[in-house]
Amino acid sequence: MTITRLVTPDDPEALRVYFDELETGLARYGDNEPRAVPEGGEPVVGFDLTTHEGHFMGAGHNRLILYTQDGRVWARAAGTWDPMPWHVEQSYRRAGRAAQHAFWGQGGVARLSMLHQLALQIQ
Length: 123
Fold this sequence. Notes:
Largest sheet: 4 strands, antiparallel
Number of strands: 4
Helix content: 25-40%
Mean pLDDT: 83
Number of helices: 3
Low-confidence stretches: none
Order of helices and strands: EHEEEHH
Number of domains: 2
Distance between the termini: 27 Å
């Protein structure tokens, strides 16, 4: 896994472009996914983690973001994968999607979520 793109407030234009592209992608390809940064939120940092090889699902492109809203800092993951072989896609559809969402924090079950566990450690 490699950080293949990093945007910070040090380059406001790159930060704006990154988050505009992310919101456009979620709107176009997301399955009723909410906006990456809710209305009233302010983007802080975004970076891409790219899985190049060896992952059972193929090449992955996870975007981890930080944003502020109402005086708090929030973390969110928004990822995409290259097309999966048919047999992997069937497994993912049956159980993998729910597991991925739990891992990245959707559903609010801290013991299943890497992001929730990280947040608990830095409070």
